[in-house]
Amino acid sequence: MPRTPNLNGFLYFETVARRGTITRAAEELSVSPSAVSQQIKLLEQQLGVRLFRRDGRSLSLTLEGEQLFQTSATALRMLRDARRHLGKTRETYRLNLRVSPSFGVRWLGPRLSDFVARYPDWDLRADAAPDPTDFDREVMDLDIRYGTGHWAGYHAQAVIQDHVLPLCSPQYLAELGSGKPGEMFDKARLIDSARALCQWDFWLMHTGVETEANRKTILMDRSSMALQLALDGSGIVLESLALALPELAEGRLVPVTPALPVLRFPAYWAICPARNLNRRAVRRFLGWLDEQVAAHEKELHAVLDRHGLFLEDIVLESERPSGRIEQT
């Protein structure tokens, strides 16, 4: 079997053919002229053809040499381009991310500056959209989605636990006065988020709080809108501490019923095709997200302890707010 020519031979040959002399080729390759001559002679022996015509110190390509030069020049250019591309890939990553709108604005957005500072060379695109990603049709690496984790065909990884309780402004709580929870809720406006997994009907039934059938309610399409109404003193909102923790920590919102549990369940999920987990950008982002969630959980538990609040774990069995929820 013929021996495969040394790849260095092709490199030396292409450089000589391009530069015109062995001396100039040797200078470009940072080797001695004799080393270049030796590689050319060896390549000619291995191929069994003459590549150059020698007339004193002048060199010209033979027909076979011209054919090899065209091929080797193209191949080496492709290798150089590939090397440059790989070098850029090592330094720069692109991450396309989609998130649920209120979560993106209230939780993820304030933390993204830390991610950008850690990875200044990364290209980041973040979309806040109510509908999940269609990964078969959209160029998206990862979706952080609010729900129960039932996304058929995709990898779904729970990243943040939801903590739900009734909250209102201190001024609104003072207007309601003290009393049993049912009596307070009968006097209050109850603010619901239309897309929330845990809404007032379930919370009242689960906690055993009895209210009048004709209670006053306000339904908002977004959690951020519902929270703003509560901050403005317009009622009591049943909301997530993933979204409302800063307001609770600062005292702008307060618990209405500290004697009743804060309901906890997995609610925010990282979703993508399983193949996307092989992408370094996705793995790095999920690692960073884990760090942010750990810091959030630490702050959350400190705030809960300060208010004397306690937790109760539940499992959501349906994405519909009226679906059955089991206590664990």
List keywords for this structure.
328 residues; 12 helices; single chain; 45% helix; disordered C terminus; 13 strands; alpha/beta; two-stranded antiparallel sheet; Arc Repressor Mutant, subunit A; D-Maltodextrin-Binding Protein, domain 2; eleven-stranded mixed beta sheet
Helix content: 40-55%
Largest sheet: 11 strands, mixed
Terminal Cα span: 71 Å
Order of helices and strands: HHHEEHEHHEEEHHEHEHEHEEHEE
Structure commentary:
- GO terms for molecular function: DNA binding; DNA-binding transcription factor activity.
- It comes from Roseovarius indicus.
- InterPro entries: LysR-type_TF_proteobact-type, LysR_HTH_N, LysR_subst-bd, WH-like_DNA-bd_sf, WH_DNA-bd_sf.
- Pfam families: HTH_1, LysR_substrate.
- With 328 residues, the protein is an alpha/beta fold.
- It contains 12 helices and 13 strands.
- A hairpin with an 8-residue loop joins strand 12 and strand 13.
- It is rod-shaped.
Write a brief structural summary:
This is Gcv operon activator. Residues 5-62 form the HTH lysR-type domain. The chain is α/β, with parallel strands linked by helices.
